[in-house]
Amino acid sequence: MTRFRRLFFLLFLVLLVLYHERWGKILYPFPYREAITRHASARGLDPYLVAALVKTESNFNPRATSPRGARGLMQVMPETGSWVASQLGLTPYHPDLLYDPEFNLAVGTWYLADLYRSFGQDTVLALAAYNGGRGNVIKWLAEKQWTGEKSRLDQIPYAETRQFVRKVLWHYQVYRYLYGREKP
């Protein structure tokens, strides 16, 4: 697809979402809304941000598995799931539990909230760490490879992480627009 066609298609989607709410909700459904809201709120997170992360990671497929082995709605790695489960006292742990939406959301939201605390409540840094790893983000900042600013996402050394942060932030704005005005 040429750059012009991609730009035209993106503009078309933006207009469709913004100007026709019903079509926007078809393109941006909110399955697991109650569970996402409950787990996000329990961790002090914005449910629309968690929904955006889930859309980006798994498109709301609880059985999703990445090529690297991340599982479930929030695409939690089994090792991360084990560590978080031990922090939460969720034992016994088995990696297949990450396919259970409730378990995955409990673990994934705790982990995201932990990253928020580690990075001073900065959404962009927490999202970069969620995808690229906490240690990598700390290294990028320390070595001045990235300023950590939203306006400088192009500095992130990993293309996958750059795209992940951009997509989540875009989806976040759309979810806030489409669902943020509704009563809970």
Overall description:
By secondary structure, this protein is an all-alpha fold. It has two domains: about 1-30; about 35-180, Lysozyme, CATH 1.10.530. It has nine helices and no strands. The chain has helices at about 5-20, 20-25, 35-40, 45-60, 80-90, 100-120, 125-130, 135-140, 160-180. The longest helix has 21 residues, at about 160-180. It is globular.
CATH architectural name of the largest domain = Orthogonal Bundle
Radius of gyration: 17 Å
Number of strands: 0
Which structural category do the helix and sheet elements fall into? mainly alpha
Give the number of domains: 2
Distance between termini?
40 Å
Q: How does the overall form come out from the CA principal axes? A: globular
Q: Please outline the major beta sheet.
A: none
What percent strand? under 5%
Percent of residues in helices comes to 55-70%
CATH fold call of the largest domain? Lysozyme
Task: Please give the structural blueprint.
Layout: H1 3-19, H2 21-27, H3 33-42, H4 47-58, H5 78-88, H6 101-118, H7 123-132, H8 134-142, H9 159-179
Short description:
By secondary structure, this protein is an all-alpha fold.
Features:
184 residues, 9 helices, Lysozyme, mainly alpha, 0% strand, 2 domains
